[in-house]
Amino acid sequence: MNKTATLTTTSREETLALAAQFAKLLGGGEIVFLRGPIGAGKTVFVKGVAASLGLKSSPTSASFSLMKQYKNKHTRLFHIDLFRLEEGEVFNLGFEEMLEDEQAIILAEWPDPIAAMLPADRLEMNFVLEHADTRRIELTANGCVSQALLEGLCKAVAH
């Protein structure tokens, strides 16, 4: 059964703070799909996660490289951005290594072309632009790991 929640941020700083709270919950092996229009805050969220995990490079939009890997001694983060790609275009792009690493954290923007390739247990985050800098972030958990993430994030935000 899917579990859902909705969170709201009203600035870039709040989105980064939410990402920092989220990063504290990550232990490796999580898959997160980030959806929403251009400028909705998906990449800002990824930057906040990477910074909070202590990854030295700051993620940028991966639109032109499709997949970037950030790592340190403890963490491997894959940032995927499949904007403009179709499902048939994602084969032979090097996802095999990412999928073989069961401790990798996968954050995928515009994930639909690879949805069928990845495990069903994933947290889906839909970034909805409201007014000014306000974003409504709709969360859907599709399994035990993603439900724990969703519940942990909601608990962290409530305090």
Task: Give a brief rundown of this model.
With 159 residues, the protein is α/β, with parallel strands linked by helices. It is built from 4 helices and 7 strands, in the order E-H-E-H-E-E-H-E-E-E-H.
Describe the model.
The protein is of the alpha/beta class and 159 residues long. The protein is built from four helices and seven strands, in the order βαβαββαβββα. The protein has helices at residues 12-23, 42-52, 95-100, 144-158; strands at 3-9, 31-35, 67-71, 76-81, 105-109, 123-129, 135-141. The mean pLDDT is 87. Helix 1 crosses helix 2. It has a seven-stranded mixed beta sheet, with helices on one face. The chain has one domain: Rossmann fold, CATH 3.40.50.300.
Strand percent estimate? 25-35%
Biggest pleated-sheet summary: 7 strands, mixed
- Work out the count of structural domains: 1
In DSSP terms (H or I, runs of 4 or more residues), the helix count works out at 4
Which helices and strands occur, and which strands form pairs?
Elements: E1 3-9, H1 12-23, E2 31-35, H2 42-52, E3 67-71, E4 76-81, H3 95-100, E5 105-109, E6 123-129, E7 135-141, H4 144-158
Parallel strand pairs: 2-5, 2-6, 4-5
Antiparallel strand pairs: 1-7, 3-4, 6-7
Helix pairs in contact: 1-2
